[in-house]
């Protein structure tokens, strides 16, 4: 966790989709919430790191995901909402499913 870059995912399949798209990065801390209700615990966990370089939020484009994104971003200034990448899909997993089905993503 020292000098960390952190990526938050709402579910495990979103994490696996990320790894498929971008590869596993040994210097990244991955946090899978499994429920947006775990966002506050995850914030406390990340705030315990001595240095946080970047926090990427890969949460769902539904009400619960948006609320968790806003809560984490309010608590952690380094947080960046990455959902713009898959803004037309429900989540990162749906985004990668579309890529596999069609070979491209509609803008």
Provide a descriptive summary of the structure in words.
This protein is an alpha/beta fold and 107 residues long. The chain contains four helices and four strands; from the N terminus they run βαβαβαβα. It has helices at residues 12-22, 39-47, 63-75, 92-102, and strands at 4-9, 28-32, 52-58, 79-81. It has a four-stranded parallel sheet with strand order 2-1-3-4. The radius of gyration is 13 Å and the shape is globular. It starts with a strand and ends in a 5-residue tail after the last helix.
What's the topology here?
Elements: E1 4-9, H1 12-22, E2 28-32, H2 39-47, E3 52-58, H3 63-75, E4 79-81, H4 92-102
Parallel strand pairs: 1-2, 1-3, 3-4
What's a quick, concise take on this entry?
Helices cover 41% and strands 20% of the residues.
Low-pLDDT runs: none
Structural class: alpha/beta
Radius of gyration of CA atoms, rounded to a whole number: 13 Å
Number of strands: 4
Beta fraction? 15-25%
Q: DSSP helix count?
A: 4
Categorize the overall geometry: globular
Described by strand count, sense and barrel closure, the largest sheet is: 4 strands, parallel
How far apart are the termini? 36 Å
Spatial order of strands in the largest sheet: 2-1-3-4
Q: Give the H and E element order.
A: EHEHEHEH
What is the mean pLDDT?
90
Q: What is the percent of helical residues?
A: 40-55%
């Amino acid at each position: 966790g020292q000098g960390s870059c952190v990526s938050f995912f709402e579910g495990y399949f979103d994490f696996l989709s990320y790894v498929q798209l971008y590869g596993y990065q040994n210097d990244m801390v991955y946090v899978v919430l499994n429920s947006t209700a775990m966002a506050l615990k995850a914030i406390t966990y990340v705030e315990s790191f001595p240095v946080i370089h970047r926090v990427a939020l890969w949460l769902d484009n539904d009400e619960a995901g948006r609320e968790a994104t806003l809560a984490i971003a309010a608590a952690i200034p380094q947080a960046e909402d990455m959902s713009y990448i898959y803004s037309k899909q429900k989540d990162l997993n749906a985004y990668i499913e579309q890529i596999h089905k069609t070979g491209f993503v509609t803008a």
